[in-house]
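Hypothesis: this fold can be encoded by more than one sequence.
Test: take the structure tokens below, design a sequence, compare later.
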């Protein structure tokens, strides 16, 4: 009997370890964001850049593709690496922001998971902003309009016109020539000729303002 106890103990310990490993793996899978599926990357895809399958659905809900390859580059250099790989491998690359739209500009309802289409998610890492002389503000494409407006306010700046805040990326707004309306602040006098609505990309510099916040160029 004494010779069997260690054997049973070791077997029990191995069983517990296997159970813990399986539980940890299951827990890790459960923590993936909804709609994200881990899979082997496309052949030859650059190592070190996160890539996974992800459900694509636009804001209006009119376009939904069950599982599209989506990568999450951290720098502009990684985007160049991805695009060069796609060119050589025969894939199409499409930028992906917050999907706040209804037009089939990124993908269409007919796009299938098997199609060689790779989305580039800019909203996780490509969000840097900085103030430059002018004053002007340089913004990466994945920054949200909410974050941009908060950044401008914190630096005593603002824009004359803005589209809807919230889940819009700066790159997406510029890509579709998004616009907004001008509403004067309390006590503010708009400069003569200031339009009440104009394109966010029609000019890189806003007209002078007598309000508290200076207008900033956005490039």
């Amino acid at each position: 009997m004494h010779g069997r106890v260690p054997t049973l103990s070791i077997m029990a310990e191995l069983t517990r370890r296997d159970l813990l490993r399986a539980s940890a793996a299951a827990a890790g899978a459960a923590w993936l964001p909804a709609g994200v599926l881990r899979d082997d990357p496309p052949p030859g895809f650059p190592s070190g850049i996160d890539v996974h399958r992800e459900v694509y659905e636009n804001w209006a809900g009119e376009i939904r593709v069950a599982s599209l390859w989506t990568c999450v580059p951290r720098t502009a250099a990684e985007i160049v690496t991805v695009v060069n790989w796609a060119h050589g491998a025969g894939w199409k690359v499409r930028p992906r922001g917050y999907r706040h739209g209804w037009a089939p500009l990124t993908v269409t309802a007919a796009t299938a998971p098997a199609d060689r289409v790779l989305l580039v998610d800019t909203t996780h890492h490509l969000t840097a902003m900085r103030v430059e002389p002018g004053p002007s503000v340089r913004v990466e494409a994945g920054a949200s309009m909410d974050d941009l407006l908060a950044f401008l306010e914190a630096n005593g700046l603002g824009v004359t016109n803005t589209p809807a805040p919230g889940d819009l990326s700066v790159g997406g707004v510029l890509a579709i020539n998004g616009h907004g309306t001008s509403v004067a602040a309390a006590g503010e006098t708009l400069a003569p000729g200031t339009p009440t609505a104009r394109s966010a990309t029609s000019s890189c510099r806003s007209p002078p303002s007598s309000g508290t916040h200076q207008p900033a160029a956005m490039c």
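Helices lie at 4-30, 76-89, 145-154, 170-175. Residues 39 and 45 are 12 Å apart (CA to CA).
Hypothesis status: open.
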